[in-house]
Amino acid sequence: MTFWRILIGGLAVALALWILIGEQLAGASADATINARLVTVRSPIAGAVSAVERPLGSPVTTGEVIAGVDDIHVDGTRLDDLRMEAGFAEAEIARLTRTRDETEAIIDTLDERSATYRAARISDIEARLAFARERLDILESGELPDAFDVRPPRDAGVPGDDGAQAPGLRDLWVNAVKEQIAVLQIALDTAREGVFLGDGYNDAPNAEQRATELKSQLSAVSADLDEARSRLEIVSDRLDGEQLRVSRAAGAELKSPVNGIYWETLAADGEALQRGDPVARLLDCDSILVTLSVTESVYHTLAAGDGAVFRPRNSDRNFNATVVRLGGAGAETFYRNLAVAPSARHLERYDVAILVPELNADPELGCSVGRTGRVFFERRPLDWLRRLMG
Could you tell me the fold of the domain covering 79-232? Predict the structure, then answer.
């Protein structure tokens, strides 16, 4: 019985020693800090800053306005010049449009007069042609009174005594009337085609000639109008661009590029800034990582992608993690854009950074930058108990 008690006691002591030594000798960090990237919001223009009242540590969301910058001395000379050019172009378009409309109205009036003249002229020729054909029928029928003067008209060019009825004069009279009919038929045919004979050197009435001239002028006015509209379109595009430039130069809203925490104010309300001057710093809660330092012996056993376990201080929860950066000794430059700078003791050891995806999703620890804990890189004897209790 005594033997078994001694054996069980020895096994218990060995197990305790194994747990204590395993827990202490497992690869672990000396310190680990929840950290995150800092984002500096800078002024895109020169001007006076108007900061929104916001306490440090307050949450911000992407696109939320955190400050404004106004420049009352922005140069708008070019904008005024373009507005003047646009005004001139609009006035030119109005003038050309009015000229075009008036010219079209005059052309319509002249076209109506030309149509009236053409109809009347055709009717005139048709009437004269009808009477000429009646005369020809009478002459050819031979049924003329004895006292009827059959002398040809004076413009027929037939010689003879003024009062005599020379032999064959009837035939000459018939020939003259046929000539008149032929001339009238030609005049009628051309008139129906829009060409009028018998008006001297003009083949069209004055109204039609004037309308033709105005139509030529109308084409030139229409071309000038199209050119003026194109010019206005170009000036308007340049005006819109200049208006946008002046608006951007006159004032700008500074919006948060990240979801996070308002970390630091870098410019006071009303302070004059130049383009690119910092206004505020924000903590990017979407870039949470854990920074830590380890001994040289542990450091040389690690590689990017290795698994790890992070346990926050005063917490019994364990979070699976992945090694993402091995900074080595003297890694101070890695912390220039991080919220928590390394301590002197940290810089004396070897720097490591890990990602903890579950930590980002935790409502209590997700953005608790500055909270500390420990990181373990090897399996420990009591990991099964921690998982069971967690």
Answer: Four Helix Bundle (Hemerythrin (Met), subunit A) (1.20.120)
